Amino acid sequence: MSASTGPVGVGFIGVGVISDTYLEHLGSFPDVDVLVLGDLDTDRARSQAEKHGIPAWGTAQDVLDHPGVQVVVNLTIPAVHAEISASAIAAGKHVWTEKPLGLDRESTSALLKAADEAGLRVGCAPDTVLGPGVQTAKREIAKGTIGRPLFAQTSMQYQGPEVFHPNPGFLFAKGAGPLLDIGPYYFTTLVSLFGTVEKVAAVGLKAKEERAIQVGPNAGETFPVEVPSTISVLTQFEAGQTGTSLVSFDSPLARQGVVEIHGTEGSLVVPDPNMFEGRIAYVKPFDSFGEQPPEQEWIEVPQEGVVAGRGTGLLDMVRAIAEGRPHVASGELGYHVLDVMLSAEESAASGEFVTVNSSVGEVPLVQEGFDPFASTL
User: Fold this and answer.
1) Sheet containing strand 242-248, strands side by side
2) Which residues form the Gfo/Idh/MocA-like oxidoreductase N-terminal domain (predicted)?
3) 351-376 mean pLDDT
4) Using CB atoms within 10 A of its CB, is residue 218 exposed (0-12), middle (13-18) or buried (19+)?
5) Distance between CA atoms of residues 317 and 327, nearest Å
6) CA pair distance 256, 248, nearest whole angstrom
7) Which of 168, 176, 365, 370 could form a disulfide with 162 if both were Cys (CB 3.0 to 4.6 A apart)?
């Protein structure tokens, strides 16, 4: 970014459904200014620009050519995430991309190398880990509230997106499934808390080879299931902790947002990693009990920090660039989470433990007093 002060110019490539929440939140942050929207469907780009008061619209190339754009927000489909982000880097722009960073190790590692050589930043969703929920829980663990963390359990399970999504086929295609679609929220949270994953083991299954759309104009049409629709992942962290994680599109019982951290001196409930806030509470171990254990007392932990929403990670990145510090939701973190998930896919296919070859440095905490709605640049 230039040394000039004032809001950082932002352009979007891809203006699908998720662009609404990004545009709403970024529009409330004084440190960023959305200047242009680009999409394959320029009429859709124009409609979104008019809806959110953005001054310009056009194609992806129009965004890359815009002289005021310093950061590109990549909201395209996962299959072209790495390609579009690489184009932005080549155009001299920093990148914030939706998850996952890409769909393979080769293109995503090349993207990060190109950004590093160009002196540019890459940030990657999910940025829910910057919310007061996960951040408060992380600080509580660092304080020693539950002693030494030993293991984690996470779960996200329900009967699948075809019950509400009018075109769900892509969510069961290669590069998606519950692992790559929902897994980033859970594994980003675990890596943020524990650090590098050393190895993984996984088992998966398909409940059906074909599924049917349940809602909308295409209800009744079938589509193929290309990847496991249920997968259980065992993670071994470099620091010694372990984790068990279930992600499923096959469960009649709906249960999501389960993140529990168990330590030597207590067990901590962390909020749903798909949200920026939520309940944080812990229990302490019993000293002793008789024939029946008494009911455990939950100790509630008040959240600390300001709740903003999607785009908080981008805001942290532009402030970090100006301040010369690392940003939280980094490309390095996004790559390691992708590597963990691809390794889990490989383990499920081979039936063996898979070593995760990437690593990530300590994921920084959000700075105390971080206020998305303040003007700081």
Assistant:
1) 299-300, 281-283, 266-270, 255-263, 149-157, 242-248, 230-237, 197-205, 354-355
2) 9-123
3) 95
4) middle
5) 5
6) 10
7) 168
pLDDT for 293 = 80
- High-pLDDT (> 90) share of the chain, %: 90
Q: Which amino acid is at 196?
A: T
**Counts for the chain of helices (H) and strands (E), in that order:** 9, 17
- Token digits of residue 246: 């279930």
Closest of 126, 227, 236 to residue 178, by C-alpha: 227
The predicted structure's pLDDT at residue 14: 97
Q: Annotate 183-197 with DSSP letters as a single string.
A: HHHHHHHHHHHH--E
> What's the rounded Cα separation, in Å, for the pair 341 and 181?
10
CA–CA distance, 185 with 271 (Å, rounded to integer): 11
Amino acid letter for position 79: A
- Predicted confidence (pLDDT) at residue 1 exceeds the cutoff of 90: no
Q: Please state the pTM of the whole predicted model.
A: 0.94
The answer for residues whose C-beta is within 8 angstroms of residue 306's C-beta and 6 or more apart is: 132, 370, 371, 372, 373
Neighbours of 327 (CB within 10 A): 25
Return all residues near 80 (Cβ < 8 A) that are at least 6 apart. none
Cβ within 8 Å of residue 45, ≥6 positions away: 15, 37, 38, 39, 57, 58, 59
Residue 130, burial from CB neighbour count under 10 angstroms (0-12, 13-18, 19+): buried
Contact by Cβ (8 Å): 306, 132: yes
What secondary structure does DSSP assign to 143-163, as a single string? TTTTSSEEEEEEEEE-S-GGG
Q: What is the pLDDT of residue 323?
A: 95
pLDDT at 286 (0 to 100): 86
**What φ, ψ does residue 30 adopt, rounded to 5°?**
-65, -20
Enter the DSSP assignment of 61: H
Q: How confident is the model at residue 321 (pLDDT cuts 50, 70, 90)?
A: very high
Task: List CB contacts of 42: < 8 A, sequence separation 6 or more.
Answer: 57, 58, 59
Domains and CATH numbers, the chain: 8-124 (3.40.50.720), 129-300 (3.30.360.10)
